[in-house]
Amino acid sequence: MLEFLNIESGLLIIFFGYMFYMSFISFWSDSASGINYYSLGNRTFSVFALSSTIIATWISGSGLVLDLNEFKKDGFIYFIESLGMCANLAIVAWIFVPKMQNFLGKTSIASFMDEKYGGIVGNIVCILGVVTSMGGIGIQFKIMGETLCYFFSLETGQCLKWTILFSSICVILYTSAGGIKNVVRTDIIQTICFSIALFVGIGCFNGSKIPDQEEYNIYKPSFEIFTNMSPEKLFSFFLMMGYFMIPGFKPHVIQRVSMAKNLEQAKKSYYMASIALVIVLILSCYLSYLLSTTNSIAKNEPLLKSLVNLYDIPFVKGIFVIGIISMCMSTADSNLNITAVLIANDFFLFKKLSSLKKIKTARLLTVFIGLLSIIYSIQEIELLEIILLSGTFYLPVVSVPIILSILGFKMSPRCCLVTMIASIFFVMISKFIIKVSFDINFIGMILNLLILLSFHYIVEKWELLRWFGIRSKLKEKS
After folding, report:
1. Could you give the C-alpha distances from 140 to 60, 121, 136, 330, in angstroms and in order?
2. Dihedral sign for Cα atoms in the order 356, 358, 364, 369
3. Distances (CA, A) of 360 to 25, 30, 38, 333, 334
4. Nearest-angstrom CA–CA distance, 75 and 55
5. What pLDDT digit, counting tens, does each position of 439-449 carry?
6. Consecutive H or E run containing 449
7. pTM (2 d.p.)
8. In terms of Cα–Cα distance, which of 96, 88, 100, 125 is closest to 110?
9. Do 186 and 333 contact (CB within 8 A), yes or no?
10. Residue 301 pLDDT more than 50?
11. Cβ contacts of residue 389 below 8 Å, gap of 6+?
12. Gap between the Cα atoms of 68 and 297, Å rounded
C-alpha cells in the first residue's frame, strides 16, 4: 500500500478530496436554487470559463484516446477527418450563434422544441437527447477507470471495474450536488492541467525512432494518400468528415449557448474553442505518431497506457492524469447535468412540478442516469463504435429540424413530427434489421432533410391531405 503513497498519488488524492468537498458545499449552498440555476448557473461566466467548458466537452477523455488510436491506425487521413470538428465549432460561431437569441436562458433544447412544435416533439427530443448523452457518459467512465489502473500499475481485469465504480461515483455525486457550476469548475481545471502536461510530454519525449518503414507513410502529410484510397475507404472518409463537420446540436451544445450572457460572448467562446481544438488535435496526433513509431513502447500496449507511463518528471505525471480524469469528468458531468435537466424540466411526467421540486428530481435523476451509464462503461465495444452508435439516436432524427429552426425555416409541428418518426424508422431498420456496416449518421441527416422539405413543400403547401379532411397547418397559421 505504501508504494502508492508518493507525490503523484498525493496530487490525485487532493484532486478527489477537492471534488468531495465541493460536492458537500454545493449541495447545501445550492439547495434552495431552482432548475434554471442548476442548468445554467447565474449566466455570469467569463469568456475564458465558457470557452473552457466548450473545449472540455469536445476535448474529452474519449476524444484523446480516439485521436491516439485512430491516428495510429489511419494516420493523416484521420487528421483531416478530425479537422471537421474544428470546422464544426467555427460554423456554429459564424452561422448559427448570431441567430440564437431565443435560446439564451433556455433550460434545454427540448423546452425550445416544445414551445415551437408541441409537446410530442419536445418529449421525443428529450428522450433521444438522454439516449445519445448516456453513451458519452459511459465512455468517459470507462476511460477514467483505465487511467487510474494505468496510473497505479494495476491489471485491467477485476481492478478496472472497481476503478470505474470509484471514479464514476465521484463524478455522479459532484454533478448531482452542484449542477452546471461544478461542471465549469472541472472544465477550467482540465484546460489548465491537460495543456501543461501535453506540451511538457511532447517536449520531454525521448523514445528512439524505429527505422523508416512503408507502414509509417500513412503519417506523412500527403494528398496522394487520398488518390490511392479504395472507393469503400473514400466513401467512409466522406461519411466521417460529414459526421464531424455538420453541427449536430446535441443537448450540451445548446446549453453552452444558453449559459452565455449574450450572443457576442457565445460567439467569441466558440471561436476560441475551435482554435484551441486545432492545436490540441495537432499535438495529440503528433503524440500518437511519437508513441507509434518508437521502439521504447511495447507494440501491443494501449497508447493511453504508454502515455500515462511516459511521464517521469515529478508532478507532471500527476498533473497529466488529473488532466485526463478532469477531461472525462467535464464531458461526463456536462452530459449528466443536461440529461437530468431534460427529464426533470421537459419530460411530460415532471413538467408541472415546481422549480424547487424539479431540482430535487434532477439530482435524483443524475444519480440514476449515472448508475445506468456505468453499464455502458463495462461493455467490450470499440470506442468509435459507441460514439457513432449513441449519435445515431439523435443526429439523423433531431439535428436537421433544430438546424432549420435556428436558421428561421418555418415548418408546421406536423411536418416536424412526421420527419422525426420517419427518421426513427430509418435508424431502426438500418441498424437493427439490415445491420449496415457503415455509419449512417451523415446519410440519415440528409434523408431527414429530404423528408422534411418534401413534406413541407409538397404535402403542407399544396394541401395534399385536404381530400381526407385534413387542413394544412401552414394554411391555418396564415
Report:
1. 8, 29, 6, 9
2. negative
3. 16, 11, 10, 17, 18
4. 23
5. 888 899 999 99
6. helix 441-454
7. 0.82
8. 125
9. yes
10. yes
11. 135, 431
12. 14
Q: Which three cell numbers stand for residue 104?
A: 439564451
CA angle 34, 100, 410 (to 5 degrees): 115
Grid cell of 100 as nine digits: 440564437
Q: Which three cell numbers stand for residue 406?
A: 435556428
Which carries the bigger pLDDT value, residue 70 or residue 447? 447
Give the pLDDT of residue 478: 44
Question: What are residue 294's DSSP bridge partners?
Answer: 209
- The answer to whether 79 and 281 are in contact (CB under 8 A) is yes
- The 10s digit of each residue's pLDDT in 307-364 is 777 766 667 777 778 878 877 887 887 788 888 888 888 888 788 887 778 878 888 8
Domains of the chain with bracketed CATH? 2-378 (1.20.1730.10), 383-478 (no CATH)
Report H helices in 152-262.
158-178, 180-203, 224-227, 231-245, 251-258
- Cβ contact 179:43 at 8 Å: no
452: which 3 cell numbers? Answer: 422534411
Lowest mean pLDDT among 9-18, 248-257, 312-321, 376-385: 376-385
The span from the CA of 331 to the CA of 372, in Å, is 16
Give the integer Cα–Cα distance in Å for 257 and 250: 12
Backbone angles phi, psi at 214, to 5 degrees: -60, -30
Per-residue pLDDT at 1: 42
- Grid cell listed for 7: 507525490
Inter-residue contact 187 to 56 (CB < 8 Å): yes
DSSP state of 299: T
Supply 40's cell numbers: 445554467
**E strand segments, 209-324:** none
Residue 350's pLDDT is 84
Rounded to whole angstroms, what are the CA distances from 461 to 283, 338, 339, 474? 51, 36, 36, 7
| Cα–chain center distance at 393 | 14
Dihedral sign (CA 390, 440, 380, 85) = negative
Higher pLDDT, 215 or 239: 239
385: burial class by Cβ within 10 Å (0-12, 13-18, 19+)? exposed
Terminal-to-terminal C-alpha distance of the chain: 74
3-state per-residue secondary structure call for 72-95: HHHCHHHHHHHHHHHHHHHHHHHH
Q: Is 308 in contact with 151 (CB distance < 8 Å)?
A: yes
